[in-house]
Design a protein that fits this description.
196 residues; alpha+beta; 2 domains; globular
Length: 196
C-alpha cells in the first residue's frame, strides 16, 4: 500500500477533532508526535474478543467493521469509514478484554496511537477534556438514535433510513454484513431492495 502524506493525514485528523471542540494548534502538536501510519489488508483482524484494546485508529481510507459472534452467527454492530475513529472504547478505557472483533472490510490506511502514549496528553489539558466530552456525547447520542431506530422501525424502514442517511453503507458494505447490521436475513434484505 502507498505511503501516506503524513502532514495531509494529520490535517484531516485535526479538522475532524475541531468539528467536536476547539483544540489549539500547540495542543494538537502534542498529539501529532504519537500518531503513526498503519495499513490493514482486506480481511485482516485488528482486534479479537478477549484482547484488550489499547489502540485507536483514525481512518484515512477503507472500512473497518465491528462485530460479535453469537450462536455461530456474526452480528455486525458498527462500520467505521473515512474520518471515523475506530476503537472498542469500553475496553480501551477499562482495560477489560473486548467482546468484539474488529476486521478490515476493505484495504485500510489509518493513523493510530497507543493508549500509553495518548492518555497523558488527554488527561491533563482542558481543551482535550472538552474534546473528549463532546466526542463521547456525540457517540452516545448516535448509539441512542441507532437503538431507537432498531426498536421502532421495521427492517424496510431501517433500510430506507440507511439509504437516506448513510448511502455509503449501501454502496460499500457487502450485503451479508448489511443484513446482519439491519437485524434481518440476507433473503429478506434482497426482497426489500427489489421492492424499492
Amino acid at each position: 500500500m502507498p505511503v501516506i502524506n503524513k502532514s495531509e493525514a494529520l490535517d484531516r485528523l485535526y479538522k475532524k477533532m475541531q468539528s467536536f471542540a476547539v483544540i489549539p494548534p500547540n495542543e494538537f502538536e502534542k498529539l501529532k508526535h504519537v500518531m503513526h501510519e498503519k495499513h490493514f489488508k482486506k480481511g485482516e483482524v485488528i482486534l479479537k474478543p478477549h484482547q484488550v484494546c489499547r489502540q485507536f485508529y483514525f481512518i484515512l481510507s477503507g472500512c473497518i467493521r465491528n462485530f460479535r459472534i453469537k450462536d455461530h452467527k456474526e452480528i455486525n454492530l458498527t462500520f467505521f469509514l473515512e474520518e471515523d475513529l475506530a476503537c472498542d472504547f469500553d475496553s480501551f478505557r477499562s482495560e477489560k478484554p473486548s467482546l468484539f472483533y474488529m476486521v478490515a472490510t476493505e484495504n485500510c490506511t489509518v493513523l493510530y496511537s497507543n493508549k500509553k502514549d495518548v492518555v497523558p496528553i488527554f488527561s491533563n489539558d482542558e481543551p482535550w477534556l472538552n474534546y473528549l466530552f463532546r466526542f463521547f456525547q456525540h457517540l452516545f447520542l448516535e448509539k441512542d438514535k441507532h437503538a431507537a431506530i432498531f426498536k421502532l422501525f421495521s427492517p424496510e424502514e431501517r433500510y430506507n433510513y440507511l439509504v437516506t442517511n448513510y448511502p455509503e453503507y449501501i454502496q460499500r458494505i457487502p450485503l451479508k454484513y448489511l443484513a446482519s447490521y439491519l437485524g434481518t436475513s440476507r433473503e429478506t434484505l434482497n426482497r426489500i431492495r427489489k421492492k424499492i
